What we know:
β22 (481-482) and β23 (485-488) form a beta hairpin. The strands form eight sheets. The protein has a six-stranded antiparallel sheet with strand order 16-17-18-24-20-21, with no helix packed on it. With 567 residues, it is of the alpha+beta class. It is 33% helix and 18% strand. It has a domain at 94-280: Glycosyltransferase (Alpha/alpha barrel).
Amino acid sequence: xxxxxxxxxxxxxxxxxxxxxLNYFIQNxxxxxxxxxxxxxNLEADPPYLEHSEWDFGDVSSRFVEAIxxxxxxxxxxxxxxAEAGLKEFMLSFLDPSDGLLYRPQSPYGPYQLASSGGRAGxxxxxxxxxxxxLLTWYLTEGEExxxxxxxxxxxxxxxxxxxxxDACYFPTEAYLGxxxxxxxxxxxxxxxxxxxxxxxxxxxTGDRKALDLARKLARSVLTRKPLTFGPDGEMLRDAHNxxxxxxxxxxxxxxxxxxxxxxxxxxDFVEKAYKWARAQGSSFGWMPEQLRTPKWSETxxxxxxxxxxxxxxxxxxxxxxxxxxxxxxNCLVESQILSQEMLPRPWRKVPEKVPGSRSYDRVAExxxxxxxxSVFPNDRYFQADWHDxxxxxxxxxxxxxKGLYLAWSHIVTxxxxxxxxxxxxxxxxxxxxxHSFLPYQGRINIQIKKASKMYVRVPSWVPxxxxxxxxxxxxxxxxxxxxxxxxxxxxxxxxxxxTYPVRSHKLIEKVAGEEYFLQWxxxxxxxxxxxxxxxxxxxxxxxxxxxxxxxPNGSPEPASExxxxx
Length: 567
């Protein structure tokens, strides 16, 4: 590895965060159960435990496979391959070769385990969407054609069970039971919206218009099926059964990718309005609610969806949304990750085991490090909800949080025909440039040129253009801007670029989840919040509210391959 700048700034590094997350994914699964993952981690229970759930089979196993692929790409760490292989086989074992769909097995977990005609719990539409993400990410990172064929088979299966109605199609309920029968249960998870995003990505990869046609028809159902999920201005509508934020933002991700793929400006505009409405229900620092009914606690899955939406909007030229990506990532997303056992609560409560044999009590604290908590209050990692209070690391939010890290990391630097774009002020090592950020301490980034002749560096919105200074190999350069991007041309390998500007430090009051908070910002980083959390307070970052930059020896991760931009 080429050593180019030493020492370097010891600031937020998403590749390092991803490497830390790998511990959770390779330690969590149960080898005695064919590497079935555990959905629940209850760290307050005495003793702490991991526990299986009905979500293990399709949703969680698929998310784990997807997340590990991102970690490998970001960090270059290939440890834990036995667990990864076991997770892949576990997920694939539930694919029915007759129709390509993933069926949950009968199990003692959860309230919806009704038997299908084959003695199974059914093919949940949510699970199909998650499995498609896993299969496509697996194919994109490893190139296995057999995996792409399984995705094709699943799409054929979804196409066959979807019910046509005019120019739309829909899934009658949450789960298909086989032989034309569906689970009799009210809609909770916006099933028509879940497969749209991977369907469009499959079309982009293969040109298969059947996948695109299915995505378009499902999108029409999401927008018109009653009870309506969204209002005319993108607002999320509430009903008695569906108040889940993440299932709606996940549908919006699919709608937006579809709109971009087919050039539907009206659909893009609608999703942008919906995004702004959703953002207003959360916060400027990335806290996003789990439920619309009782929006007091967050869900990490919701944060990642909002990062995904902001990335897609920014990529089509709406560069103001890079600011959201940066704020959400630097704050609520990374604050939700558990980096050490010291961040865990003290076990204190007795919790009866509902399903004998469903728990593991072995080395639980060690195994959950690197994972993400499922929910937080705006100022506290300990939360109280109408269904549970306390602290939990979940099998959906940990992989989703990891995906959030990946989505931000893969867009710090992007390669376009007209040059290299640096969109986020975060550390990155790519084949084209290596970036070292000094934020939040100083408004400064150092860039080492490897393979780029023209570069665009986004300047934060709070910085007046005249306050920016750029040096190339120590010599000041003229300021040339294209929109919010500072332009540097005629670059050569080995050039060292330094961009500096003032860091804004300010306080403001923001209402989040119905409560007012005093926020102390330094650049994009929330360095303090009042009132402080009572049990496990967040944003205890006084050390970041200074100008002295912590340094570390140069040890940047190996450069990512050129094909790291998957989604």
